[in-house]
Amino acid sequence: MSEPMNGAESLVRTLVAGGVEVCFTNPGTSEMHFVAALDRVAGMECVLFLFEGGATGAADGYARVADKPASTLLHLGPGLANGWANLHNARRARSMVVNIVGEHATYHRQYDAPLTSDIEALAATVSAWTRTGTRAAEVAADGAAAIQAARTAPGRIATLILPADTAWQPGSGIAPVPPSPERARVSDDAVAAAAAALASGEPALLHLGDRAVRGAGKRIAARIAAKTGAKLLAMQANARIDRGAGQVPVERLPYPIDQAIAVLAPYRRVVLAGATRPVGFFAYPGKPSVLTHPDCETVTLATPEEDQVEALERLAEAVGAPDDIDVVPPPRPELPGAGRLEDDAIGRVLGALMPEGAIVCDESLTTGRNFFAATHGAAPHSWLQLSGGAIGVGIPMATGAAVAARDRKVINLQADGSALYTAQALWTQARERLDVVTLIWSNRAYAILRGELANVGAHNPGPKALGMLSLDNPPVDWVSLARGYGVEARRVETLEAFTDVFAHALARRGPFLIEVAL
């Protein structure tokens, strides 16, 4: 007679049957029965990280590329806390994630063992759905409900807390996953209000986010713009934009507040399609929180929870937009010759060499602000950005994206300061032999914060202030660090060397890191 299925195995089998095929994990004692179940159940890929922030960031990157949830396996409250920052980013990106968080056995919690914490309270800050299992016979149904919640539009984080005894006691078998609700259809009034805003005769902006910045959405938006004269602009931070040759080129709202205000100043009507209202990333003395002109009217066509593509189609019909348009993107940039290793030249190298189908994971921050414009004419690719502002997502996000699409080259555009938060994910890239090229912009500083000193009015910073923004005492040796994690690496100090080494890295498979000395 076969051994009965325990709660952990019933949960894993439910996850697999529900289409969750990857578990990004850093487990501990409380999760050992789940770990054992992963070994017994076919169909679940297991990817180990040395730090929970790597696992949660990878789940975010995976969901953005695969358009379906991965699971994480985290150890109690402290493990969830270690992964919290990148769950914040995933929530802001509206990524689908199913967290499994181990917990003390139900009867053990009363003794307040050292790792005891209020996991539900911590999980609730980033999760749309949170539940603590109470009976092994119900754990599979709990898992099915978590999958349903994660798949609810526009994509959500669901956290199932799994007490150890509900994992090792007899379970109930596989539970079916209820269907998730479809994206809501926008009202006729919303379409009419957007059409009226675009027909007002006032300068108008169609502000795009979520599914509206992918292929079909952008093309419909461009048809509307061709008819109405509205300007197209993407949000400053986007979970994923489909770009390159054949795609409608759309610029993003700049991050620096003065630039953003200047870009939005001409418009008196802003129509939101999957985007949120343009507001400052932070509050700055003497500067507005809402970045549009004081006389600007903001109209919501479709929220991220609603069907933006269908809404854009109805808006196109309402304004009499043409059935199609010719898309003439900028030409693919030519490789620069000899010159300085500066942002514009680096952007041209990226645009010239980026292979078709590449996935770009962008946590460039200061250095990469000009890369977007330089790559409109590159080969077709997807561009993923830091969406929640919590730095340290770039290397894990690239790792998860590479797991989701092992046949596509992943290029990680990475600021050096934020890379140090989760550099351990390079080890996972080596372990999994993932096809990721990491470009470290080695300016040895938190350069973005130097600009913020001026933006917030903190003038005349002294040596203490500047010392807290510097990474050059001692400098980080990225080549040695990467090689220590098992990743081949090179340092380049000239534009010619960067071009040659980047071309070499793109031509091979497997992880490769280039430290670009700026």
Automatic annotation (TrEMBL):
GO molecular function: acetolactate synthase activity; flavin adenine dinucleotide binding; thiamine pyrophosphate binding
SUPFAM superfamilies (UniProt xref): Thiamin diphosphate-binding fold (THDP-binding)
Keywords assigned by UniProt, alphabetized: Thiamine pyrophosphate
Domain Thiamine pyrophosphate enzyme N-terminal TPP-binding positions: 5-110
A Pfam family that the UniProt record links to this protein: TPP_enzyme_C
Presence of the UniProt keyword Nucleotide-binding in the record: no
Span of domain Thiamine pyrophosphate enzyme TPP-binding: 379-516
Gene Ontology process terms (BP): small molecule metabolic process
NCBIfam families hit by this protein: PRK07586.1 (NF005760)
PANTHER family linked to this entry: ACETOLACTATE SYNTHASE LARGE SUBUNIT ILVX-RELATED (PTHR18968:SF86), THIAMINE PYROPHOSPHATE ENZYMES (PTHR18968)
Family (UniProt): Belongs to the TPP enzyme family.
Protein name: Acetolactate synthase large subunit IlvX
Natural source organism: Methylobacterium gregans
